[in-house]
Amino acid sequence: MLIDGARRQSIWPDPEGEGVFILDQTLLPHAVATVLLRDLADAARAIKDMQVRGAPLIGVTAAFGLALALRADSSDAGMAKAAEVLRATRPTAVNLAWALARMTEFLQQMPDELRRDAAFAFARHLAEKDIACNEAIGDHGLALIRAAAEKRNGAPVRILTHCNAGWLATVDWGTATAPIYKAQAAGVPLHVFVDETRPRNQGASLTAFELGQQRVPHTLIVDNAGGHLMQRGEIDLAIVGADRIAANGDVCNKIGTYLKALAARDCGLPFYVAAPVSTLDPALAEGGLIPIEERAQEEVTIMPGLAANGEVVAVRIAPKDTPARNPGFDVTPARLVSGIITEKGVFEASKEALAGLA
Ligand code: MRU
Q1: Which residues, judged by CB distance below 6 Å to any ligand atom, belong to the binding site of ligand 1?
Q2: What class of enzyme is it (predicted)?
């Protein structure tokens, strides 16, 4: 997708072979900066500190991180240790473990001395596969947006999204945003309502940024406004991403997703989840078993932003020492999900429909 009119991806290998480049998402939207990841520690830190984030991008970064680690030690023990370091960075998005498992399965079959180059090639393959999956999600989701457009008689289709399940959360296209970008390219009029997504504000800082760069009409709303707009008939459908989907179709996504799904059900609106099949976790029977990341209290009590003098500053918004709780994700029960848009088609959120997909 575009930044300042130029095609960009969220991660790409350094053509000089020094490592892997990422966009530092902690600086967006105020600065567009690239960072070179040179080794395992760099990759692990980038995931943990959320310079890269979003389930599919975390997975691809981990794959490149393993490839970087194998430059130092390509033995079975070295590979297992590096995978462990990467797996421990963030607990909820299953794409991280998925990508490491694919890498390890592939590399274990070959002698140590061939692993270094093969690991990079396979990580590149996973990155390209991510792009292709998301584009296919876009095509399947476009049909749903077209169906909504028919009821709007030429007026824009109004779509609510939560957090950033955009191209910045993947290698390109995004998951929830892929159908939006496809609809825009197809000339379907639309308007996206973007939840700010407290506490880290990925909607305000990332989704609003990428939709703006892509010239998709959009409006930023506070997290609590979505239900109100739905009740007033100002939203036609919701599309969100996912960090892990249990075997029964329960969907784990950024905190606050559940409340939007409840409001959508109450208002009789479709609530879609867009995710590649690598986000399915058939090993977990239901969403209650998904590990939920608990993040720092300071993310709730202190907010960063751009000051009038152009400097990024952090301001405290609660009394000093106020205790805070910060679960990063929640689980939306399958019964509230209208459909899961994957690269293989749109599926009912149920054990039967999802069986055998992953
Ligand atoms: O904590 P983050 O920013 O990694 O959380 C990201 C989300 O919850 C996304 O909505 C989800 O990963 C889907 S990514 C296509």
Answers
A1: 53-56, 93, 163, 165, 169-170, 175, 202, 241-243, 253-254, 328
A2: isomerase
